[in-house]
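Course assignment 3, question 2. Fill in each field.
Student: A.L.
Task: Predict the tertiary structure for the chain below.
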Amino acid sequence: MNAFIMLQKLTESKFNKSKKNVNVFCNSNKIPFFEFRSESGIDVIISQDKSREIVTTGFLYKVGSRNELHGQKGIAHLFEHLMFQGSGNIPKMGHFKFIQQAGGTLNAFTMADYTAYYEQVPSHQLETCFWLESDRLYDLRLTEENLQNQKDVVIEERMQNYDNAPYGLALFKLFENLMRGSSYETPTIGLPVDIKDFSLTQALEFHNNYYRPDNLIIAVSGNVEQETVEEYIGKYFSTSKSGEIPTLNLKDYIPLVEDKLEVIESNVALPGLFIGYQLPGFDFKRNIIADIFNELLINSTSSRLYRKLVYQKKLVTDLTSHLISWQKCAIVTQRFFYPDISSRNIILEIFDREIESFVSGDISERELEKAKNKKLLSVFLGISTLLVKNLQALYYKFYLNDPNNINELYKIIESVTADDIVNFVNENFLNNHRYILNYIPEKKS
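Answer field:
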């Protein structure tokens, strides 16, 4: 089913009340998944899609910034870089060379809970992906030269994206105050002092501890046969590693006991207002409710605060809201850029009034349906691509131990009611303290 049919069905099912809703994730359209566990302990997911002559592979290692020890903040992300520095049969940066010469693309990313590597190649090049990943899993070659080189790269990345960027340290301030005491207090980019001190011995230990078959999920999507994947898993990933994965003791945040406002003068063009709230850890339906609430409140040009703050009162030039959800805890943040430095309190007053209006039951059926439609369309357009579908399979396998939760998204989104929104606001906004960060332009001397 293509996006145009999806849009048509959404329009028919949502805005024509005489028709029943059409479930575009009905049984005939469900994404099929086959799972097995290899003898070496790898969880393998296969999703066959023969509509295109391509295949996507994803390798998720269950290690992220949450696993970092004191004095090693940023090591998980640094190690993502080191995984491209060569292995037994692959030269430095050889992964890019082999995949690109095969007509494919690749990348990697580090999150707080996990680190993922992925490739997308023509179907007949699938074995190349398995060969490359197994080589650096079992025979990664680390040197002092490569380690120092990637330390410099990561520190430069932090300076460019955070330290020297406008509002760049807002994320650190939000984490520092909302995630205090938790395993998620430091963003994945890490701390320069720790990165500089990271030794080759620590790098080898990190690889041995966490880059191992029994800490790995592999997802394969596209024009592929189950037997082929099983063959390559046996050929390239049959060897187990000795030792055990270090015990993980996830720590929750220290709850805020009062609201906190922090003002920072910085070299920024416009004042920036950041609001953050603490939430419990990963919850499938709660996260969907949060996304729909954010759509109702801020994240569209027809949302309540966009209409009031941008169109009507012209107080704000840009605004957005995000949920960041990890296994143990989560935060929801709002961000506003505004031209008049004296407008902060007015913006906060309007924000608070709008939050309270949700609890009074002021949510129309059409408003809620519109927000749910946008969530549905976003989900569908995402999983209509092999890459997103593959990464989502890894995501739901990691957090819920079942990639089939992708097929439950329609049902969950459709089930969200006005009462769910009210309960979400009550639990996480009205009965919760918050951290407010206000960036203001430096005073000119």
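Instructor remarks: Confidence is low (pLDDT under 50) at residues 1-27. The domain at 25-236 is CATH 3.30.830.10 (Cytochrome Bc1 Complex; Chain A, domain 1).
Grade: pending
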